[in-house]
């Protein structure tokens, strides 16, 4: 994401004010000096007329001196503000005295040579791993390339190194938006604006995120702020028109679509805008419900993705009030209950989802997960096997269906079926590391040392850094040394 639509204040204004303040101080000082010289001349010549005139005009002399002192004081304050602004601008760009390198990498990005920009930034990071700018610049290259996960990682590292780096929050917010982490995008852009109110492009990103989760009122507020600051950005009127339309604000939507088409008639969205405008004028969506069910679903999914499970459940519940016969909403809320460890409500919702849609694969899968969860009061290996069997029937190539059913069979001590399912999972996806993780533990538990060691080593080829890798490393060490293993640790 690039910053540049809006700038509210300029260094030029500060330079002009400093110049005016210094000019006032200089004029006051010149006249003050003239009066002082005239007084001294009067004393030396013992000229009573000059002295009398000076005495009569001495308040003016005092006034001029005060103006001079005050003007220079104002000038000093403005110079301080100027220095502060320059420092702030330098922090926002983070060039740190390396404009040639900075400009060269930016040129690579602007011309689409992202790999070259990334390679140069990576080399600079290796030389100086604590220099914030290169992480941000590399993140920008990744973002422009479309590799948003790596971009987010670099922006996050920049923020770790400098927690008040407003531009990094803004950039990460833009990447969050692109990967669908709308709540995180909103949080990052809000933080960026709190740190630097001049990063006004943050309103654009945040407004789009609000639009995606169906919070149309807040989207309108942000797009309106952008329009106030930059009235000629056509796309903002289009986005605000969409938000108004979703809320049933027909006249406002018509006005914004018309303004968009006036400002940017050749935009790629112009055709869709004309169609929407025609429908609005014909009254086809004049009675659109303000509580459109999709608004709650989108918001619920955004909260779910962000880990705010209670809010997600609230949104899905509101959606069900409007559409109580939609299986997918029960599925979404059931899955959220499952993630929130509310297992009985998860079973209830997922069962209702299956009743409404008997081919709802995900509902069977997550209900099976609830039944297989050892911490759930609903634990039932037989029911789990039945649900995973249904998953496999509906989707014969679903790796995690075989993996999970294999685990359920092992819980029932049906080891042959367990190993058969785990082998099938590996056949379908040899890179599915959790199959090796569980199979190594099962083999070890049954005394199949060689097989367990082989699975441990295969897992570690796929994963060396996670917490699971640490567990497997310890298990492998114990197996090779012949140490007695407490298998309860793996199932607690």
Please tell me about this protein's structure.
- Helices cover 77% and strands 0% of the residues.
- The longest helix has 46 residues.
- Among the domains are: 83 residues; 166 residues, Alpha Horseshoe (Serine Threonine Protein Phosphatase 5, Tetratricopeptide repeat), CATH 1.25.40.10; 63 residues, no CATH class.
- Helix 7 runs parallel beside helix 9.
- The chain is an all-alpha fold and 492 residues long.
- The N terminus is likely disordered.
How would you sum up this structure in a few lines?
The chain is built from 24 helices and no strands. It has 492 residues and is mainly alpha-helical.
The CATH topology of the domain at 99-264 corresponds to Serine Threonine Protein Phosphatase 5, Tetratricopeptide repeat
Average pLDDT figure:
81
What's the helical proportion of residues? over 70%
Shape: globular
Pattern of helices and strands: HHHHHHHHHHHHHHHHHHHHHHHH
Structural class: mainly alpha
Q: So, the CATH homologous superfamily of the domain at 99-264?
A: Tetratricopeptide repeat domain
Can you identify the CATH class of the domain at 99-264?
Answer: Mainly Alpha
Percent of sequence in beta strands: under 5%
- The radius of gyration computed from the alpha-carbon positions, rounded to a whole number of angstroms, is 34 Å
Biggest pleated sheet = none
Straight-line distance between termini? 45 Å
* Reported CATH architecture of the domain at 99-264: Alpha Horseshoe
- Oligomer state equals single chain
Helix segment tally:
24
- Number of E-state strands: 0
Regions with little confidence, pLDDT below 50 for 5+ residues: 1-15, 88-97, 286-291
């Amino acid at each position: 994401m690039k910053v540049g639509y809006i700038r509210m204040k300029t260094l030029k204004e500060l330079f002009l004010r400093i110049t005016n303040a210094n000019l006032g101080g200089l004029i006051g000082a010149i006249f003050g000096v003239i009066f002082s010289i005239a007084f001294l001349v009067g004393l030396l010549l013992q000229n009573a007329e000059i002295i009398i005139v000076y005495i009569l005009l001495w308040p003016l002399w005092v006034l001029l001196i005060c103006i001079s002192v005050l003007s220079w004081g104002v000038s000093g304050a403005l110079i301080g503000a100027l220095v502060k602004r320059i420092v702030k601008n330098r922090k926002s760009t983070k060039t740190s005295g390396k404009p040639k390198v900075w400009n060269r990498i930016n040129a690579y990005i602007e011309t689409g040579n992202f790999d070259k920009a990334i390679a140069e930034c990576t080399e600079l990071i290796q030389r100086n791993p604590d220099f914030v700018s290169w992480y941000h610049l590399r993140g920008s290259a990744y973002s422009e390339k479309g590799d948003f996960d790596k971009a987010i990682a670099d922006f996050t590292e920049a923020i770790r190194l400098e927690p008040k780096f407003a531009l990094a929050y803004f950039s990460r917010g833009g990447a969050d938006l692109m990967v669908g982490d709308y709540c995180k995008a909103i949080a990052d852009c809000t933080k960026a604006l709190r740190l630097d109110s001049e990063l006004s492009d943050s309103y654009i990103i945040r407004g789009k995120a609000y639009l995606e989760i169906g919070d149309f009122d807040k989207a309108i507020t942000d797009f309106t702020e952008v329009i106030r600051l930059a009235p000629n950005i056509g796309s903002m009127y289009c986005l605000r028109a969409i938000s108004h339309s979703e809320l049933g604000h027909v006249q406002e939507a018509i006005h914004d679509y018309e303004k968009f088409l006036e400002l940017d008639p050749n935009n790629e969205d112009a055709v869709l805008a004309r169609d929407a405008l025609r429908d609005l004028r014909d009254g086809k969506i004049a009675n659109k419900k303000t509580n459109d069910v999709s608004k709650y679903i989108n918001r619920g999914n955004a909260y779910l993705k962000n880990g705010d499970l209670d809010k997600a459940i609230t949104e899905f519940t509101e959606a069900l009030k409007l559409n109580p016969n939609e299986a997918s909403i029960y599925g979404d809320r059931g899955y959220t209950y499952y993630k929130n460890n509310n297992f009985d409500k998860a079973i209830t919702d997922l069962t209702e989802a299956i009743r409404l849609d008997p081919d709802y694969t995900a509902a069977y899968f997550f209900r099976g997960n609830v039944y297989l969860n050892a911490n759930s009061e609903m634990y039932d290996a037989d029911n789990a096997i039945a649900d995973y069997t249904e998953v496999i029937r509906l989707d014969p190539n679903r790796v995690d269906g075989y993996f999970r059913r294999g685990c359920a069979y092992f819980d029932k001590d049906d080891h042959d079926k367990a190993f058969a399912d785990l082998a099938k999972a590996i056949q379908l996806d040899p890179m599915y590391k959790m199959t090796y993780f569980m199979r190594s533990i099962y083999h070890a538990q049954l005394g199949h040392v060689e097989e367990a060691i082989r699975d441990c080593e295969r897992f570690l080829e796929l994963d060396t850094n996670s917490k699971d890798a640490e567990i497997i490393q310890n298990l492998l060490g114990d197996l090779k040394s012949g140490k007695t293993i407490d298998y309860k640790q793996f199932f607690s």
